[in-house]
Every structure is written in C-alpha cells, then in structure tokens.
Specification:
The complex is a heterodimer. By secondary structure, chain A is α/β, with parallel strands linked by helices. Chain A has one domain: Amidase signature (AS) domain (Amidase signature (AS) enzymes), CATH 3.90.1300.10. Chain A has 16 helices and eleven strands. The two termini of chain A are about 30 Å apart. In chain B, strands 1-2 form a two-stranded antiparallel ribbon. The two termini of chain B are about 45 Å apart. Chain B has a domain of about 40 residues: Histone, subunit A, CATH 1.10.20. Chain B is mainly alpha-helical. Chain B is flat, with a radius of gyration of 23 Å. In chain B, strand 1 and strand 2 form a beta hairpin. Chain B is built from three helices and two strands. The chains are: A alpha/beta, B mainly alpha. Chains A and B meet through helix 9, helix 10, helix 11 and helix 12 of A and helix 1 and helix 2 of B.
C-alpha cells in the first residue's frame, strides 16, 4: 500500500480518477496520522473523524467529479464559523457557542469537494504569535516539540506540517498565516485585502483580517486560494472582480518579473540563519534570470507601532459584542452592568484584555488624534510608498520571520518582544497587499525558515509565480521532508 | 509613561473589562510600556496624509434595499445564555431601590 499521506492535491486526484485509492482510504490515513501525532502536537481543538469518513463515503459513492478539492482532507482554524459545530476562537468566552451559519469559506471548501477533518488551535481571538495564548491547549511545533509553532494560526500550520491534514485555512491580521507557515516549514498565503470573504470569520481587526490557505507546496496553495477567493455579497469589502487564475501560469516562475529586496536588511535584528538564507536567495536570483534590486522597504520602521494601534483599536470595538447577552459565557451577576464587567473579566485571557485596553486607550477622548488618527496617517504614508515601489518592481523578497521557531514560554514574559516577531509581516497587512511565505531551508538547529514575497495590490498571479520560482530554488520538501519515491531528508542539517 | 489608578479605572470602565489583583498590576506595567513603544509614531511627519487612505480604491459597495431570507429568530436566540420568550434575558438593569 502506498503512503497516501504523501500525495499533493493533484496527486490525490490522479489516484481518485484512476480508482487507485478511495476518499475513505485517504481520510482514514489522515485520521490514523492524527491518532499518532496529535496526542503530543495538539494542533486540533476538534477532530471530526466520524463525519469525515461519512462525507468521504458519500464522495466515493458519487465517484470523482473533477471538482478542484474533491476528497481533500482539510483542517480549518477555529475562528471560522461552522453551522451547529462549536466555534471557540480558543477563548473561554465562546465556550459552547455553536454558530447558526457557516463562514463563506467553509461553504466554498465544501462546494469544491473538500472534507473538513477538524478545527485547529489558535491564540485566543487570533491575538498572538505562538499559539500559547489559547485558553485550551498549547500546540507544539512538529519539527521539535519543545518549540512553538508560531501563531496565531499555529494549529493550522502544525496540522499540515505533521501530515494531519493535506491543507488548512488560517487567518492573517499581522502575519498570523505567514509566520507559523515559516516556523513550521509549510507554504502560507494571505491574499489582497478583499480577495477572500471574511463573512463568518470571527472579527479581530476588520481592516486587516484576511483568510488564507496553508499547503505543502505552492501549487496546492494556488488551488486552495482559487477555491476560496472571490466576491461575496455577505462581505461588502470583497473585491467585486473575478479572482485571478493562479495555478496555470506557475511554471513561468520568475521569468520577466522584477524583484526587489530591502537593501538595509542588515539593520534589522534577525537570526544569522535567517540572514544567511536571505542573502543566499538574493545571490541565487542574481545568478538566474531575475536579479533583485535593493530598495528601501516601506513601513519597516513604523509598521509594528502602526499595526498595534490600528489592530487593537479595531479589536476593542469588535470584541465589545462579547457581553454575555447573545451567546457564549455569562457569569451570574446581580446587575446588567456587573454582568458585562464580570463576564468579560472572566471570559477573556490576559493578552486579549491587554489589547482591548490598549485599543480603548488609543481611541479614547484626548488620545484619539495622537494615536489612532496618527496611525491612520502613517498607514496612508506606507500605502503611498508601496504604490510607488510597485510601479518599478513586481515583487519584494524578504524573510517572513526574523527568527526560526522559538522555545515555548520563551517570549511570554515580554509582549513587545513577541510583537516584534511580526516586523516583516505587518507591512503587507497595513497596505492590504498579497504576501506568501515559502519554506526555504533549515537553521543549524534543524528548524525551518521561510522566505516571504509581497506583490502589488491584486497581483496574486505574479506572487504565486514568484513563490513557485522560490520553491524551485529551495526544493525544501525534496531536501528536508519525506516524499513519495525518494529516501527523503537526505541533506537535513545543510 | 505612567498610568494612574484613575486612568486605569477609567479604561476598565470604557472597555467593560474587570481586572483584579496581581493581573491588574502586571497589565498596568505592560500597558505603560506598550503605550511608550507606540508613541514613537508621533515623531513621523505625516503632513498632508489622509487618514482615510487605503490601497485598492474601490468605492463603498452598495446594495439594493430588499428583504431576503435570513436567520430565523429561533436560530439567533438559540445560543443565548438566557431568554424570555422572544427576547434575550438579562439581569436587572435598574435596581429595585432605584425605582
């Protein structure tokens, strides 16, 4: 019996088409993999073994029908609403909540033939960079369980890295897809703001949030994005244009694309292994067909402060809805006002409270202009600088995270150190630009490092071509991950 | 940047979050440092920057004002911690001695 876990989406569909494997067999392989790895990784808040096998059997009964995600076992982050199924956001305040509707992306995955195998852990309300802020459990990095998987979509990244799902969805407000993708050695994509409907994504910062896929490779990632992207009447901020064909042009790679990189990379604090991979990539591109030009990257100096003002201002407003009245936790209190205070005091974790209070502060009378309005103006400055840059270049290449995975517990004491994990990822959220993390290599301690590409507004097709080009430079899976038909891991540690 | 007791209490009241004991003191210190950190933006020259700007530039989407099927009252009330017939139930808003 071949190892069914090793097939890509198109590979699996080849098996289905040729009657070489059933969806049920594939689903069982993934459930077996979950039984082996999940007890120590803890990527999932819920696993739907029974319903996944039932849906698989129904797909088998109908036979392969050519839908793009037919029979693909997927995990989704537990901040995506699923009708009648608990959706917790890894928060005690939503314990027991069963939404009466599905997120648009959930309906789109199902319509494309995917089977949802479970819902994954996250930092509470997607606030965090390590998955350690979950009210339920700590997820461990499959590459080394003493390390964090990154966050906030750490469960979705770990599930794919540990072969517990072929692909997954996460959400990215300041790097919450790309950073865990980098730390777990998988591909993670955030589209242009408005590319994917946010309907049914529990809101954190509505002007920055985007849902996007995790996958093992760029081709799978492109297929997933095509399945979930597009206008949605339930989200007025979705782009009212057809979404681009992403996978048919991948093979063109870097051909004809103008690449830029931040020439002052040396100025930013980062691990030597990350700097080394960035430098080697730039050298590789120079030897190939796409020499990269050094530029000043917009927003680097100001992005973290801007991000934490805007994101938390929006969060303080979005999270006002958790008041113990309509759903979720309620404390027994003697008056309405006490009930609000006590429910929110008991239901939210420390990081969430910290952010609500900061957001409240920057929006409060007397501070609004100095903080919130100022950050909005800096955002305008960053947008204008990116716009100018993308008139001369197609893609910007930079690291995803300044370090490989860090040890669990290592950054919990100091929120600002944790916030600085997002220094390379927040600019794309602030400007609403599409960006992707591609696994590039391993640090000397054997932990993965990702490199990031950012493209201009709406230019996902170029972004994916560039990502495919990077994949052909790094050959990460062939070199470091066991794949069908190769002995695998042959120069791990290089 | 120091957050006085009054300021912190005011913030708690605005945010409707109750902080208690040790966690209150810890959060106070962290908030002070974060506010100090984000203050750095004030040194950036943003003359002429429109605080409403964003990339993409689509106009606000409008839709026609038509009724469409939506969630039923039962579905929406179904998740409430307490309901009274077709209303959300809450503890007393006005104390008996205020009446």
């Amino acid at each position: 019996m071949t190892d069914l876990l090793q097939y890509s989406i198109e590979g699996l569909q080849g098996l289905y088409r040729g009657h070489k494997a059933s969806v049920r067999e594939v689903m069982q392989s993934y459930l077996d993999s979950i039984a082996r790895r999940e007890p120590s990784i803890k990527a999932f808040l819920q696993v739907f073994g029974e319903s996944a096998l039932k849906e698989a059997a129904a797909l088998d009964a109908k036979g392969f029908d050519g839908r793009s995600l037919y029979g693909v076992p997927m995990a989704i982050k537990d901040n995506l609403c699923t009708r009648g199924i608990p959706t917790t956001c890894a928060s005690k305040i939503l314990e027991g909540y069963r939404p009466p509707y599905n997120a648009t992306v959930v309906d789109r995955l199902r319509a494309a033939g995917a089977v949802i195998i479970g819902k994954t852990n996250l930092d509470e309300f997607a606030m965090g960079s390590s998955c350690e802020n979950s009210a339920y459990q700590i997820t461990r990095n499959p590459w080394n369980e003493a390390y964090a998987p990154g966050g906030s979509s750490g469960g979705s990244a770990a599930a794919v890295a540990a072969d517990m799902a072929l692909a997954s969805l996460g959400s990215d407000t300041g790097g919450s897809i790309r950073q865990p993708a980098s730390l777990c050695g998988v591909v993670g994509l955030k589209g242009t703001y408005g590319r994917v409907s946010r309907y049914g994504l529990v809101a954190f910062a509505s002007s920055l949030d985007q849902i996007g896929p995790f996958a093992r490779d760029v081709r799978d990632c492109a297929l997933l994005m095509e399945a979930i992207a597009g206008h949605d009447e339930h989200d007025a901020t979705t782009i009212p244009e057809p979404s681009p064909d992403l996978h048919s042009a991948l093979e063109k790679g870097f051909d004809g694309l103008r690449i830029a990189f931040p020439s002052d990379l040396g100025k930013w604090e980062m691990d030597a292994s990350v700097k080394d991979i960035a430098t080697r990539t730039i050298d590789d591109l120079a030897r190939g067909s796409a020499p990269a030009a050094g530029v000043t990257l917009p927003g680097m100096e100001m992005s973290i402060a801007t991000y934490y003002i805007l994101a938390n201002a929006e969060a303080s407003s979005n999270l006002a809805r958790y008041d113990g009245v309509k759903y979720g936790l309620r404390t027994s209190s003697k008056s309405l006002a006490d009930m609000y205070d006590e429910t929110r005091g008991a239901g939210f974790g420390e990081e969430v409270k910290r952010r609500i209070l900061l957001g409240t502060y920057v929006l409060s009378s007397g501070y609004y202009d100095a903080y919130y309005a100022k950050a909005q103006q800096v955002k305008a400055l960053i947008c204008a600088q990116f716009e100018e840059l993308f008139t001369k270049h197609d893609l910007i290449l930079l690291p995803t995270s300044p370090t490989p995975a860090f040890k669990l517990g290592e950054r919990l004491a100091d929120p600002i150190t944790m916030y600085l994990s997002d220094i390379f990822t927040t600019p794309a959220n602030i400007a609403g630009l599409p960006a992707i993390s591609v696994p590039a290599g391993l640090a000397p301690n054997g932990l993965p490092i990702g490199m990031q590409l950012i493209a201009g507004w709406g230019r996902e097709a170029k972004l994916m071509r560039g990502a495919f080009g990077l994949e052909r430079i790094y050959h990460f899976r062939e070199r470091f991950v066991r794949v069908a038909g190769s002995e695998g891991g042959r120069d791990a540690g290089a | 940047m120091a957050l006085t007791d009054d300021e912190l209490e005011h913030l708690e009241r605005l945010a409707r979050v109750e902080l208690t004991g040790e966690s209150r003191e810890k959060l106070r210190g962290q908030l002070e440092r974060i506010i100090e950190f984000v203050k750095q933006l004030q040194s950036i020259d943003t003359t002429g920057c429109d605080p409403r700007a964003y990339l993409g530039g689509f106009e606000a989407a409008l839709r026609s004002d038509e009724t469409k099927p939506c969630l039923s009252r039962e579905e929406v009330l179904g998740a409430a911690p307490q309901r009274e017939k077709e209303f959300f139930g809450v503890p007393p808003v006005i104390e008996a001695d205020e009446l």
